[in-house]
Design brief:
alpha+beta; five-stranded antiparallel beta sheet; four-stranded antiparallel beta sheet
């Protein structure tokens, strides 16, 4: 397992080499308790007030539904999470200082929710440049254990050119060479090369489970224009700039010129 100690200020060359080779990096306890305690109620609100459903509807049928009434990044702790200094330091160590925010998802996944089959989440860029990285930060507010379920990753699979669902016919089943992350402390973040195949596995049947509080945010290395996945992506970036989430320190983080037009293709 590729693990980075969050007590350190920056990634070293060996951690970057391991990430480039394996396609993932585990940062135990990256999110402090005070931030987690603010994030969890926002996730509850996002789910319980139907804001997540409205956001999904806005992406599924934007002409009919229009943009969502609330964006994830408008929730104060979620906005703070996007630019959490230890996270941005880790990203800088992996892809350099120039990267752009791509999108944010937030959910409270019920214990009986089915798993998600093997897939990757990488979007193309208009330079067709495989050396430019897209990275997903998977934040597990309450960690992972036998009551929550696990994350399976397939190290090295990001180096193969394949469609997102190329391994979906395996469901969430075991694949040769996989690594299972099933013991992560609260506040752990897993950084994935977005082209890495991974699967969400549910908690085993037969016992009481607990919800998986899960937030993922993605970031793209600058150097080409990336395809957006949300039709309201301009509104999202503009709102982040209005809220000054980058605090003047990350000029590329919410810049529109790093994206192509939205096509609706996923």
């Amino acid at each position: 397992m590729t693990v980075f100690s969050t007590g350190r200020e920056a990634l070293d060359a060996e951690h970057r080499r391991q990430f480039l080779e394996s396609g993932y990096l585990v940062l135990p306890g990256l999110l402090p308790e005070a931030l987690r305690e603010r994030l969890a109620p926002e996730v509850d609100r996002w789910v319980d007030e139907g804001l997540r459903a409205r956001s999904i509807a806005a992406c599924t049928d934007p002409r009919r539904n229009g943009p969502p009434p609330v964006l994830e990044l408008e929730l104060p702790a979620h906005g703070e999470l996007l630019t959490h200094p230890p996270l941005l330091r880790a990203l800088t160590g992996l892809i350099g200082r120039s990267f752009v925010f791509h999108h944010l998802h937030s959910d409270r996944q019920a214990p009986d929710l089915p798993g998600k089959p093997w897939h990757h989440d990488c979007e193309p860029n208009d330079g067709s440049d495989p050396s430019l990285l897209m990275v997903h930060a998977l934040h597990y507010l309450t960690g992972l254990d036998e009551r929550v379920g696990s994350l399976a990753v397939l190290p090295g699979s990001h180096r193969r050119t394949a469609d997102k669902g190329a391994y979906a016919h395996h469901g969430t089943g075991e694949l040769p060479g996989e690594v299972v992350l099933d013991r992560l402390p609260p506040g752990t973040t897993v950084l994935l090369n977005s082209a890495l195949f991974h699967a969400r596995r549910p908690a085993p049947d037969g016992g009481p489970g607990r919800p998986r509080y899960f937030i993922d945010a993605s970031y793209c290395q600058v150097g080409a224009r990336w395809r957006p996945v949300k039709p309201h992506w301009r509104q999202m970036l503009a709102r982040a700039r209005e809220l000054d989430l980058a605090d003047g320190q990350w000029p590329d983080l919410f810049a529109e010129h790093h994206f192509t037009e939205y096509t609706g293709t996923v």
